[in-house]
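We examine the record.
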Amino acid sequence: MASAASSTAPVVAGKVAKKAVHGVAPLRAGNGISFALRRLHSLSGIVPVGAFLFEHILVSNSTAISGPDAYARQVSFLANLPLVFFLELFGIWLPIAFHALYGFYIWYRGDGNTMEYPWTGNWMYRAQRWTGGIAFAYILWHTWTMRFTGVDLHAFPNASFGKVQEEVLQTPLFLFYVVGLIAASWHFAYGIWLFSAKWGIVSGDKAQKRFLAVCVVFFFVLSGAGLASLASFRSRPQQPYEPGTSAWQSTQAMNHQAANDHAVKNRAERNQPAKAMEGR
């Protein structure tokens, strides 16, 4: 009897292990504070960190495709939001710091394995960790240079296009931007899939595979929009970004004149139907 039991035990264990690798199991309550921190870490990757990346790449940065004036208007809009410093502090900086630092802790602990990444193997686990590290370095650099060094873009939004452009026109920094953008896009897109699977929003092997395909498409949309924005910064004539210089003043005068001409043209086009009706 003992030998029969021992011979069947590995078979049963093997069946249980085989079932465990299908899909990603939802997070379950554990001992101490670990479960709460993991829940908060998972949630913060979607809101507010993921929401910030969505807005920053697909909305704000995409306005650069329309040129310096459109980009400056978007920067001015964000800079004039009520309590903007506290929105940045509690909606961007602190959540990113928590999500990144706790993510590094999870990485250091080596938590997670191929059991959570059944279809593609351990490289997906590694890719999510490495893209998170690269994205964090990219966000730190971008935030520091754009927000806390040089001209204050909140005070001078018209300098925003030229300030970003000055970095993007340097090939090493441009390549750093490309790598950082792709890393952030993948980390967010695949993070949406992990969040949905671990929170039980999308359950079952087939459903998770289908939703993974959706997240991969979203990754290409996100990174494609970001790369198009970077291309716009590199393709346009270099804009001055130091207020007070003659080049800055000349450029601002030209931009204001172009904006006025555009407004006059739009008014004339709107008045044409009315004049045609009067003629009849």
Q: What stands out?
A: The first helix runs from residue 2 to 20. Residues 1-22 have pLDDT under 50 and may be disordered. Residues 128 and 187 are 6 Å apart (CA to CA). Residues 34-266 form a domain with the 3 helical TM bundles of succinate and fumarate reductases fold (CATH 1.20.1300.10).
